[in-house]
Structure prediction request, 334 residues.
Amino acid sequence: MKIQPLGKSNLHVTPLGLGLAALGRPGYINLGHAADLGQNYAVEEMEAHAHSVLDAAWAAGIRYFDAARSYGRAEAFLSSWLAKRQIAAGDVVIGSKWGYTYTADWQVQLDEGEKHEVKDHSLPVLQRQMGESRATLGDQLDLYQIHSATLESGVLEDGAVLAELGRLRDDGLAIGFSVSGPNQAETILRGLDVVVAGRPLFAAVQVTWNLLEQSTSDALRQAHTAGVGVIVKEALANGRLTSLNQMPSFQAQALVLKQIAEDQAVSVDALALAGVMQQPWAGVVLSGAAGVEQIESNVQAQHVVWHADLLDQLAFLVESAETYWQIRSQLSWN
Prediction:
């Protein structure tokens, strides 16, 4: 797999990366997540499972790996894999995120009122989680991102937080931000304007963009032009763009999507990933694979021969941002 610059940063990544949201904790909202883990939630078993998926990603040529403080033990599983395989800093690019704290206590089903993760973009949380990430990943942490920045959270206006992020940047750590929700585009554009000590703060933005949710296309073109690297998450829409999607409301679309994939002699997930990878602004597209077979299927996306007619054929899938995020909010933790 080729290595390419991530925007104007000093980071060099592969077009496909692996996100560990589904590998580091027992519960997640991906369709079929419980089956992916075999409902075996012992920490040692989950660590071994994560290592097997990381091995498959490495064998396929993937060299960008993405975690977060709120992904349970994702950072720890990634760190133990790097040590076990003796993978040195510089051989991979590691990104992580701060701003959410994991609160599910290794449980899948929570009592009413309890949450799997709690959002807090304050300076004390940044300082605490930065210390935790450094303690776990050491000098192999290359990119630190605000987790799901929004205009409402105020984090992009918080002078103390921005100053601390600027200090980390000046110490050599690339700084990024991720976005979520129907107002992703507005948040991206606001992030592009953030300047600390006379220089743009952010080297990268992580965004949800897929065959269903394309509301950020113009904003991502602007980010790319500005030299900000684009990392795409949820490229398979948490499983909605795979054969696992049995939602009655999506079956007409699923049949057409399956036929187009078969015409290209690839799986539905590979086609969906290829549709993201062919975007000129896409720096690295994350696989959210939770199993070896999923990784092996996902990486076939790099071999899809894309042509302009394909995107036209797939345009019928596009949903409004409001519809997409409403459906996503209804996905159950499993």
